[in-house]
Amino acid sequence: MTLGQSALLAGLVQGPSQYDPLRHPQAATARRNEVLARMRQLGHITAGQETVTRSQPLGLRPVLPPAAADPCLSSPAPFFCDYVRQILLSDKALGATRAERDHLLLEGGLTVKTSFVPAVQRAAQQAVDSTVEKTNRAAATEAIVKPGTGQALAMSVSRDYGTAPGQTTVALPTQPAFGPGSTFKVFTLAAAVAQGLPLSTSYFAPACYVPTTFTIGSNSGGSPSDARPRSPRRPGRPSASPGPHRAARCSTLPWPTPSPASWKAC
């Protein structure tokens, strides 16, 4: 190790981030020269050695470290992990640029506390895994939020977290492109109750729409618990002899669809 390198390292002890030679080369050089001056004062080096070393550049030859694996891969809740990471990386309070925020997140010694609950996460993951197979082109998602707080307790996706075929690193429950789906059923129910309809209200609806875009069944990579084939039929034509599942799904609606005015009332 050269005299200049030794002085540089000794100077870094006081402020590794402040005198980081890669990020702040001018500050690092000034700090190195301070160390050289002190070494001369203490008689460890001569004035000539100090002069020669001061005139030398830092001589850094940085080598980029190998790309680190995604730390969320080892998390018991990788999609929740990535969700929190993206929130932090978009917070300008942690840095003016994305690079600065990324550096602080990875090397700043931050302690990040979340509302994550492991037991809830395990239940949510089991729910999606038992509903849609990982090979299905449609993915099931679950985001558990504590009522009245907005605190996310768990987040699960039926696909594995990763970049391999059939995997994804996108926290699907957070994407605005996906519709709320059955979440709106509770608003429909609330509107019906507000109109005075009892919960026992039902309407016979023999016509059933069966989508052909996404089929359900193990043969198509669907639900592990539902391998029955689906045959599309014309809307408006009642089933000749519907089975119990068909009747439950297509012939009975527990409440009517409210009017737009009722939606606004909700």
Description:
- The protein has helices spanning 3-12, 25-41, 47-54, 78-89, 98-107, 118-129, 185-194, 244-251, 260-265; strands at residues 141-146, 151-157, 203-204, 252-253.
- The protein is mainly alpha-helical.
- Strand 1 and strand 2 form a beta hairpin.
- Helix 1 crosses helix 2 and helix 2 packs antiparallel against helix 3.
- It starts with a helix and ends with a helix.
Proportion in helices: 25-40%
Please report which band the strand proportion falls in: under 5%, 5-15%, 15-25%, 25-35%, 35-45% or over 45%: 5-15%
What would the principal axes of the Cα set say about the shape? elongated
Termini gap: 74 Å
- List the domain count as a whole number: 3
Question: How do the helices and strands follow one another from N- to C-terminus?
Answer: HHHHHHEEHEHEH
Largest sheet: 2 strands, antiparallel
User: Looking across the biggest beta sheet, what order are the strands in?
Assistant: 1-2
- Which class best fits the helix and strand makeup? mainly alpha
Task: Report the uncertain regions.
Answer: 217-223, 225-266
Mean pLDDT rating: 80
Radius of gyration: 31 Å
SS field, number of helical segments: 9
According to DSSP, the number of beta strands is 4
